[in-house]
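Sorry, explain these tokens?

***
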Amino acid sequence: MKIKAAVVREAGGPFNIEEIELEEPRADEVLVKIVSSGLCHTDLVARMQYLPIPLPGVFGHEGAGIVEKVGSQVTKVKPGDHVATSFLSCGVCNSCKQGIPNWCPDFKRLNFGGRRADGSTTMKKDKETIYGSFFGQSTFATYSLVSERSVAKVPTDVPLEILSPMGCGIQTGAGGVINSLSPKPGSSIAVFGIGSVGLSAIMAAVVCGCTQIIGVDVVESRLQLSKEFGATHTLDSSKADVVEEIRKITGGGIAYTLECTGIPAVFRQAVDCLMMGGVCGLIGVAPAGAEVNLEMQHLLDGRTVKGIVEGDCVPEIFIPQLIDLYKQGRFPFDRLIKFYSLDQINDAAEDSEKGKTLKAVLKP
């Protein structure tokens, strides 16, 4: 079928709106009419080719839409269902069977390979191959061919256009707190980097009952916004010794930290301010080869560093749970969103990179 999609043709190049051909769904695939698609940092990293993804390609991995068709083996959803789309995993490895699909050994190949699991492609323009299957979906388009494993059914009583960011950024920040760190009520947490992921983490910390929630950033407007979402303290790391200030606030060190920037110096701060036995969750994505120096004695004193991918969640379970929290007024993630048309994708990318927009969502 003919669809409209945002195609990237060269490293760092613009998103070009083009008409291309999308295959019909195979037995285990779902055709989704895209209502909205979140623009994530990973999409921008892919465009710059920091990840080795074949071009020309279509990105987008935070989709929300309506099921148009399903393959013969699909049982999870049916035409007319509302869905959010998330990352892909193999479903048969030990990690997938244990409910931790984010640690699937085939994660990189399935999500960044530009092809289906069997190596075939889903899109073309005339005789030219257009690489898709980004995170098992490629949702910067009017329609997306999605693996059944990448689909999460969502309720119809919530506006579908706001649900797309659930597929990656929102679930990563919230899941990083709720699933990965699992702080006990009354505990303390500091979130380094107050973008959409960090703000989702702060909202999740409130849900978990954390009583000291510290937001750390260099942008004053984001620090102020973090207070509106539940931060009890804020620190501008460009003006203060963050490690020392957190020790003062907490009386010696903090129980949990979440690093959302991918900057090695910030990661070091997030570890250094931990109390003995504290845990630092690393979400921020650094360039390949980036290294950080940590003091060995700090780790010997029981401090832990934990890498977090996709919030350690099973999307078809966790996304509906977050939606329930939203419906209860306890997780107002929709306040992060600014809408753009698909034709405005380059403006949305620029605004996101400059920090003008917290969470850009495209509406084809």
Notes: The longest strand covers residues 29-38. The chain has a mean pLDDT of 96. The longest helix spans residues 169-181. The radius of gyration is 20 Å.
